[in-house]
Amino acid sequence: MLLKGMILTCSSHIQAERTISSIYHLLKGRKSIQTVQDAHIYQLEKFYGVYKSLSKKTFDQNVLELENKQFLQKNASDDLQFKITTAGKGWLNEHKDNLPLNYFNGLKYADTAKCFFERLILLIQTITNSRKNHYSFIPVIDKIAIEDWVRMIYRQAKGSEMQLLKKIYAELYRLLQHFTAQEANIFVDRLTGYKQYGMSLEQLATSYKRETSDIQLLLTGILQAMVAIIQKDIKQYSFLSFTLKDLSPSNSITNSAYATFELLNKGHTVEQIAHIRNLKGNTIQDHIVEIALYDATFPIHSYVSAQAQQEIITAIQQTKSYKLKQIKQYISEEINYFQIRLVLAINHNILQAGDTNA
Amino acid sequence: MHKQNILENKLKKHFNYTFFRVGQKEIISDIMQGKDVLGILPTGSGKSICYQLPAMLLEGVTIVVSPLISLMIDQVKQLKAINYKSVVALNSFMDPMERRRVYRQLHTYKLIYVSPELLQHETLLKALEKIKISLFVIDEAHCISQWGHEFRPDYLKLDATIERFNYPTTLALSATATKHVQTDIINALHKPHISKQIYPMDRANIAFNVQEVQDDQEKIRTITNLLKQYQVPVLIYFSSRKMAENVAVLLSEKVPEKRIAFYHGGMEQMDRIAIQQQFMNDQLDIICCTSAFGMGINKNNIRLIIHYHFPLQIESFIQEIGRAGRDGRESVSLLLMSPNDIHLPVQIIKNELPSENQLIFVFKQLANLYHGEVRLPTQDKQIENLFEINETQWRFLHYQFEKHDMIVQHKIFYQAEQWSEAYQKIKALIKQRSILKEQKLTEMLDWIQQKKCLRHHLYKNFQSNYTDPTAQCCSNCGFSWSAWQPEQTDIERLNATNWEEKLKHLLLIGESNESK
Ligand SMILES: Nc1ncnc2c1ncn2[C@@H]1O[C@H](COP(=O)(O)OP(=O)(O)OP(=O)(O)O)[C@@H](O)[C@H]1O
Ligand SMILES: [Mg+2]
Ligand SMILES: [Zn+2]
């Protein structure tokens, strides 16, 4: 249900200007210029990367169900593009209170929230076991970076475990007041302690009679909301804010785009690279656009003249649209889609500021 | 005599066991004298001690090659849990930063687990060459043989590795090696004089049952009845993830008083650990799983192993039932067979080897890469996308390409004649291996349809004899469920209702002597 709510919300923002799979990429947090750019343009930053393990199959199935219920409708001209229907809007409105969509802040917090939770889980497992003088437990989190952090806290807390546990209890108690009882229950059931291992996603789904995808998303949402609450009120959450102090959001371009980048630097042309890597020219262009988004020193002038750039920006401002087709109609014949996308990539910050259809 | 007692004292000191189990002391004594050993001992008999103890006693480092990453990680965790700290598992999933850090400190470990793939990386080999390696262990050594049930091409390169490390004492271990496979191991390692410590691998405390049923519904009915009758830890094996999931849900509805979960390779790492540990901890009674749940699992009181689908080879079956009764108490294996099951394995076998079309395509892509002066991608996912094959298929081909000098360290070397010759050879090999897999399948099916003693026929390719069963033998010799009365495990349930209570309980708030 949560996943459906997200798909509908995304569709209503995008208004069939993009294909439905752009929503899939957004939720999965695909590291491509197109996706990151979509997130900004359509103000869907909060959903970026909130469901990294989403499979195409699950996604397609949900879209199909929404279509069958007539909440989504195929575009007459392009059947890969979907529009939300009035019924769909009605459904969203009706379930507004059960859909905690405002919990999410993916682009900003996806990685931070995940790491925060892993630290918390391993810390609670370690401290409770240590408190019980039980040192032969199998840790549920298996990442050296997390282990190192927990070890550091553990050393400081040794001998006064109970004090730390009380502090964690008090802060989690306060924090969980911001959520519904069921959400708090799901969160607590996921934790692991002394001789008591937390529930898997599937077990939570069975026990709360919800879909696994809902549980996964809900937990993600809860955590991202928690990070926001903690950061707003550091004084009340002195320990929990400490657990996220050194975590910062990060973005990096995809491996494949990077390989293209290296070949570009060696002086190969798009065609040559496509041939060498046995990939389509379009794919290489995608890579270059992605590089343009992430590389501040990207030499846009080697691809688009200053005059053409200006023409494209003016067209965007006039059409108030990011649809490539529409922009294309306003500019000279010889400027191609690739060039439009590059200009969009370079200017995404500026353009977003001027974006009025919120 | 005196020396023997020293070993016992060390066993007590490091692992808190009083006695060696069958074969352990013999193998360990050989190793301590610097002899190479081939050790064949049954599942669950304690093969790990055969190198974990020497690792503590020998100067320098012990290296253990192990085929399954989950198995390595598990062993490392269990060792750390008993305070055996200087141990590490190296595998290709490690974070590169982390790996570099460990590489610099290799000499500080006593025991290093490593995947066979990683052991081919030059950086690691160089780092290992600098330290003193006193023992080189090949766990699950049947992987070295084409005839073994889990052939891993990288295992065939271990002889070169041993040579590079200047011939450290070598120990090869397996629970499922036929005579043929044993010979293969010895030949592949070039160690004709290896000390052979071969013990019977039958499990006297497991009774074997094969039951024919009409269809899936009858399978579910049979299982439901058993679960209602016995309160013991149970594993149910499936050949597909989807079925494991579905049946777990179905059984939870039919036997709501039991705590049932599923486990397979497609789950998130954290969930896998959680389910496995809940089971170890008796928070769960029954696990519906694929073969991904197996080798690493060392819970001593699993009493019943049910095969909802039969495995593709006798050896896999022996591994899987080997999870039962590791404490030596009477346990039961039940294989359910319905007429439709015959069709299942065909597709599975197909997916294990590349087809002819796939082979042609891979050769073409490889040539393209060569002409574009591009190296082979290093990530498995990229490879799978580029060549449109799965991981198992790539592992097989990668080894072949290296063997035919088409690939050296991710670099491609093209030579038209050589490539077309290699193509023919690989094609023939695929054919041969498919036939072999079908033979293995036939063997498994023959066993299932066997009318005489199942125990005798299960082990006949491994040994000529077997110990008398400690209790019942098999369904062909006559098995009665009512005569099997294992000790029932307790169910302890937490009855907290609201999250505040649960959180308090979890964080140990409000317990007595809280004041620490
Ligand atoms: N001498 C001993 N006394 C008591 N328990 C032992 C002894 N040696 C090993 N064990 C225990 O036996 C169990 C099985 O050991 P281990 O995992 O090494 O089996 P294995 O032979 O490697 O089995 P598999 O073939 O399934 O991998 C472990 O719990 C181990 O602690
Ligand atoms: Mg073992
Ligand atoms: Zn018998």
How would you describe this protein?
- The complex is a heterodimer of chains A (358) and B (516).
- Chain A has helices at 2-14, 21-28, 33-41, 56-68, 86-94, 106-131, 144-157, 161-176, 181-189, 201-207, 212-232, 238-244, 255-265, 270-277, 281-294, 306-319, 324-329, 337-346, 348-353; strands at residues 72-74, 82-84.
- Chain A is an all-alpha fold and 358 residues long.
- Chain A starts with a helix and ends in a 5-residue tail after the last helix.
- The model of chain A is unreliable at 350-358 (pLDDT under 50).
- In chain B, strand 3 (87-90), helix 5 (96-104) and strand 4 (111-114) form a beta-alpha-beta unit.
- Classes of the chains: A mainly alpha (358), B alpha/beta (516).
- Adenosine-5'-triphosphate is lined by residues 17, 19-21, 24, 41, 43-49, 175, 298, 300, 322, 326 of chain B.
